[in-house]
Records
---
Amino acid sequence: MLGDMDEAEDVVQDAYLRWHQADQEAVRSPEAWLVTVVSRLAVDRLRRLNTERAAYPGPWLPEPIATDTPAAPSALPAPDRRAELASDLSVALLVLLERLAPEERAAFLLREVFGTEYAEIARILERSQDAVRQMVHRARTRVHDGRPRVATPPDAHERLLERFLAALAADDERALLALLAPDVALASDGGGRVHAARRWIHGAENVSRFLFGVVRKFAQDGTFRLTTLNGEPAVLVFQGGVPTSATTIDVADGRIRAVHSVRNPDKLRRVLEGVGPIV
């Protein structure tokens, strides 16, 4: 809902305090009470965050988090868990959700991720069922239009990321262009703290030129490692043992249609667990 772990934890803590201050004997359904409070707090928090993010220096990307760790437990088998996380937490999806109004985003997530009934969503958001149905329909259309029709299997996604890194390491422009969709887009989030592109970059030629420029300037000082962030393959770049960027790719029809690179140091605090072998 918020795309930021600290903000999410603040909302949960606020809800926890309200729960302990409430008349719990009067609460008929603790789960419904908690979902309502958390949802409303998240909507209010997102309204404030939208104002802050509008003034953010350059593209704003959600915080990447390690998900192949004991900190992300699940009863699901590992492959199913990864697919579930990639579906619900992928950077590409979170970027799409940023286009939705706060109540639209809440309605969409409650319905599509948690399977909440329309009547319950209407009660939570204090809107009519018809209004909620319209919100979910609009949000579903906008999100689904921005996602590939056929999901890429995790192993194919990982192989494409490896080929992407190999092309950059070999300084092979032709190989990289063959991996990029013609309308590929790239966002680099430096948060005003470090060097990054101040705008989205569009088109295979422009994205390729930018990436090779970055690699030629900084690669000699960096170490690349594969990991899993937000349930999908990702690459971390380290300089002096410190992570300086986390990059994920959005894939459709066997090609890369978006590159999301987080360089803001404030957003790289939760990427170290589950780091894979050096590439």
Note: The radius of gyration is 20 Å.
---
Amino acid sequence: MIDTGGKRIVVTGGAGFLGGHTVRALQAHGCKKIVVPRRSQYDLTREAAVEQLYRDARPEIVIHLAAVVGGIGANRATPGRFAYENLVMGAMLMEHARRAGVEKFVGVGTICSYPKFTPVPFKEEDLWNGYPAETNAPYGIAKKMLLVQGQAYREQYGFNAIHLLPVNLYGPGDNFDAESSHVIPALIRKCLEARERAEPKIVCWGDGTPTREFLYVEDCAEAIVLATERYDRAEPVNIGAGFEISIKELVDLIAELTDFRGQIAWDSTKPNGQPRRCLNVERAETAFGFRARTSFEDGLRRTIERYTRVWDKRCR
């Protein structure tokens, strides 16, 4: 058990979507010494910048959330960038954390690391039983290297590195950019724009049959803080809500909540991605007492309300 209240903590990616919520969760747990490096000052794909960050911040704990991320379209367009930048950031941050004597390194991976045809619900033991879905394999494998590196460093150096595997996240402050957003913000924006333009239909990728699990971002942030305080083992841990919903059901629900009443068409020439995603979340509850608290519909309503306020200001 770590009392994080008095620790110096670096949160890479702390100005981003999950990062901002994680910083606020740390503050709610009494943390006062939090450093959020910005890319303009520390480009974490460059070793000199990583070294400088550790000299400047002198962290006792590092929570690594910085990542190059996006939906299926972004992963298909720039797989090399997703592979390289995620790999080098993680590798250098952990190596220099070890050299600097950091007490604990919290690596945050991705559900995209799981094999394409993992039995549902995904158990941590299945992580190596196949190749990830081709649409995001470079990203998923790059992030999974954090797990390998952390386990190797624990064995050789006694370095306290843990690895968390969050499911797809959503919530207030998500990325709604048309080119790089994930499925929930992309669908919310698509429905709102179609409603405002009185368009008769929206077109969605694939055929709607894949299933996904989603976790409200504030719940994920709380899980990260609890793991930072209470979890010190080598085995990776799933972070999720323990349910699945089909993409078709998701689209129908978002259309209802955004009051879009047009037709929903499917472009089956576009990829579906992984057929099913749903996590076994028993380890997180047993190991550090985490259970998701926000119902999916409540979380969607909050996300839509927040984005609608931003949308209304832009449209004035």
Note: The chain has ten helices and twelve strands.
---
Amino acid sequence: MEATTYHHGDLKNALIKAGVEILAEEGIGGLSLRKVAKQAGVSHAAPYSHFSDKQALIAAISTEGFKQLYSQIESVIEEHQGNPETLLIETAWAYVQFAQHAPDRFKLMFSSVLEKEKEYAEFVEISQENFSQLVKIIEICQQAGILKSGASDVVAVGIWSTVHGFTSLLLEGQISHTVLEKSSLKDLLILII
């Protein structure tokens, strides 16, 4: 009897998608190349044609997440570039919504789970592009007088820290229900930035 093999048209993306699904279902502890292969419907050896180990898979999942986040923020920039105050608010809101849509992937992207991240050039590049995008938004807001002057990268870290902290508290269920009953998430976000 001849063994049959399953041919996958876009194996790398199918494995990344399977990894994201496993993250959502089981968290980082449940992520393995073997489980990803099973979820994608391929042999347990198939992931090794794209990922040398679990760390490479984590880098790929994070890289794709940063690409999606970049794309979403770029859409916000295009839509609101002429109104800096709205641009800042809508950028922060897009960040929160991105996190809410895929909380486990978001947590993975901003965790220390990826060891030796500098070994993954595509991950480093898109991470830096995301930060540069934020700096661009900060500079637009500084030029409009909405944010204080100063080194735009330092101001960007401050704004990002605030929004990321808010987002993390939200994902962990740490924002008081009494506060959430009084204001919408977006209104709360506007108050803090």
Note: The radius of gyration is 19 Å.
